[in-house]
Amino acid sequence: MKNDNIIKFEVTAEPGSLLEKIVHQVLRDRDENRKRIMENFLIRKEKIAKKLERRL
Amino acid sequence: MNAGYSYIQKGNDYEFYTTYGSAYVVSFIDAGVYFKNHFLNSRIFTVDIKQTDTGPYNYYDYVVGITVAEIIFHFFESDDSRVVFYICDPTDGRINARKRKFKRWFENFNSGEFKMIESLMKNNTLELSIAFIFHKNNPFAYDLPTIIDKAKDDLGNK
Hints:
The complex is a heterodimer. Chain A has one helix and one strand. By secondary structure, chain A is of the alpha+beta class. Chain A is elongated, with a radius of gyration of 21 Å. The termini of chain A are far apart. Chain B is an alpha+beta fold. Chain B has three helices and seven strands, in the order E-E-E-E-H-E-H-E-E-H. Chain B is globular, with a radius of gyration of 16 Å. The termini of chain B are far apart. The A-B interface holds A 3, 5-23, 25-27, 29-30, 33-34, 37-38, 41, 45 and B 13, 23, 25, 27, 29, 31, 34, 46, 48, 50, 52-53, 87, 103, 106-107, 110, 112, 114-126, 128, 130, 136, 145, 148-149, 151-156, 158. Strand 1 (6-12) of chain A pairs parallel with strand 6 (114-122) of chain B.
């Protein structure tokens, strides 16, 4: 079924093009962000575990 | 809507926990640096969905999709000239599954206010699906195919 809210297009990026560089940079930034999120999450999880341990 | 899980917002990160014990963070990352000299410069963000804790059960939870959709639409509430894009992760071979899921979320939860530009980008080294979401009345977002088309041939050192 055709969805009028979705516009589709396809591009072939030249190797070494600005578009290719941008995409790789976006993916690197996303990986850095995921690392930050996981580090923060694990720190908080550890703090909560310590608090619970003290209460027991 | 409000049929999803409650979430906590910290800046551009939104965190939520499911009833099955898993945890997620939906992040909006400023992508303006890639759109210099354009109106979208201060309004374009990538969105990423990270499961920070799988929890004890491996259970399909449809409420996660509802929550992600609510968060994305909430992000537009403060400024409907924003554009959000999602790059389907190419690293583990599940690119098509992610693409289908993201598209299904959009189709199920969009009340007609939003548009999506679905772009398939490929060359010898990469094949990616990128979905741009924006408010239908945002005239600048319709420039995106032109911007991308220009960048695909630009071999300048930027």
